[in-house]
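Reminder to self: tokens first, then the designed residues, so the page reads top to bottom the way the pipeline ran.
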């Protein structure tokens, strides 16, 4: 795998009215014809994504959105897609034309600021109408950076790149670790990777790949094995591993094969910490105890894989949860960006590890659940709780374990 996963890319969204030149601007920034450009308003109908390296920052994902002043029933659908992008951008670019700034653009900036997203205002088409000094003075205080440019001539595009580099969250690429902070340099992490039908031939599932790379970056050692070889793999080590990480579906067998003194968790729980708020999702897991017959549970995953056989979200988790609660529960499944706007019908949300999304999007979903008063948990946390090994799965994360123990007290 050569390309950086979306989860590790800084997401930069382009927003504005129809026909202000967002697509032309994206093409100018990337130096490629990424988006279709037309004089007809509303040409961009769905968000267009373009991954690239924005040096010296690193891997980013530009998202070109449809005009959010669109009209009619189709326009409202386009606007809904655009609004969903607001939930996952780490940096926002509001594009406007000189002389056209108004309440609409101010509302876009205010929404990004409310979400604590840095904002660049890009005044486009200055080849046709320059940005007046009085307008520059009025716009400057409302954003993190103001850039006047022309996507057609290229004037000011370099200034926009510099503004993006300057406003990008400084800790986006450096502060978070998936697993290496739990395994000292030179120590061994055993990664248990069952090969099932949903792992395409020749490939590993994304969280497994991300964990291996993170261990390499931390100068730790990764021993990868299937669950049936785990006991022999551990016995072959000169000393016990610092950590065992398993696919959540193999939790019970792995828990039986790993000595009690060796810390153990799952890839999904690691992703809950890396992509979201582990403590909040631990608290959400405890809502399993309050489920009663006929309660509705939402199972959400951000990838769009085709379910095969004993699918974890559609078959295994409902089965384990039903067995644990003894209640007839009603499960609703959503994929990709189809996260409901109304969460009130649900008593619990169970989310995947979000390896194909980004942290901003996961935190937005957690925030929406909190506002709706609906607890949210994670695949791995739900499985560990249902199988009676929750405390052991949280042992590598003392602060999260403390949340659980405090809630039980």
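Designed residues (409 positions):
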């Amino acid at each position: 795998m050569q390309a950086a996963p979306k989860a590790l890319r800084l997401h930069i969204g382009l927003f504005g009215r129809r026909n202000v030149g967002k697509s032309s601007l994206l093409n100018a920034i990337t130096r490629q014809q990424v988006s279709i450009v037309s004089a007809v308003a509303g040409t961009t109908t769905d968000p267009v994504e373009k991954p690239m390296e924005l040096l010296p920052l690193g891997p980013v994902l530009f998202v070109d959105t449809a005009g959010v002043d669109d009209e009619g029933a189709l326009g409202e659908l386009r606007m809904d897609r655009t609004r969903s992008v607001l939930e996952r951008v780490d940096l926002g670019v509001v594009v406007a034309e000189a002389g056209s700034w108004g309440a609409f653009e101010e509302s876009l900036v205010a929404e990004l600021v409310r979400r604590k997203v840095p904002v660049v205002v890009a005044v486009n088409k200055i080849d046709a109408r320059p940005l007046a000094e009085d307008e520059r003075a009025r716009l400057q205080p409302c954003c993190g950076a103001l850039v006047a440019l022309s996507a057609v001539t290229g004037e000011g595009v370099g200034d926009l790149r510099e503004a993006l580099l300057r406003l990008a969250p400084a800790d986006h690429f450096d502060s978070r670790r998936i697993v290496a902070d739990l395994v000292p340099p030179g120590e061994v992490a055993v990664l248990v990777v069952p090969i099932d039908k949903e792992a395409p031939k020749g490939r590993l599932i994304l969280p497994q790949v991300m964990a291996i790379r993170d261990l390499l970056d931390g100068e730790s050692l990764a021993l990868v094995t299937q669950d049936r070889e785990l006991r022999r793999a551990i016995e072959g080590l000169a000393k016990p591993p610092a950590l065992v990480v398993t696919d959540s579906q193999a939790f019970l067998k792995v828990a039986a094969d790993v000595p009690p003194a060796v810390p153990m968790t799952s890839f999904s729980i690691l992703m809950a910490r890396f992509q979201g708020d582990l403590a909040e999702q631990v608290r959400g897991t405890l809502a399993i105890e309050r489920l009663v017959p006929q309660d509705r549970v939402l199972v959400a995953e951000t990838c769009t894989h085709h379910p095969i056989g004993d699918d974890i979200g559609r078959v295994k988790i409902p089965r384990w949860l039903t067995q644990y609660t003894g209640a007839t529960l009603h499960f609703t499944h959503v994929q990709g960006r189809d996260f409901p706007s109304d969460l009130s019908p649900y008593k619990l949300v169970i989310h995947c590890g979000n390896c194909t999304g980004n942290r901003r999007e996961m935190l937005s979903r957690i925030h929406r659940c909190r506002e709706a008063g609906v607890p949210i948990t994670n695949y791995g946390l739900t499985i560990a709780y249902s199988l009676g090994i929750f405390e052991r799965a949280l042992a590598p994360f003392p602060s999260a374990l403390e949340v659980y123990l405090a809630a039980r007290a």
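The two ends are 46 Å apart (CA to CA).
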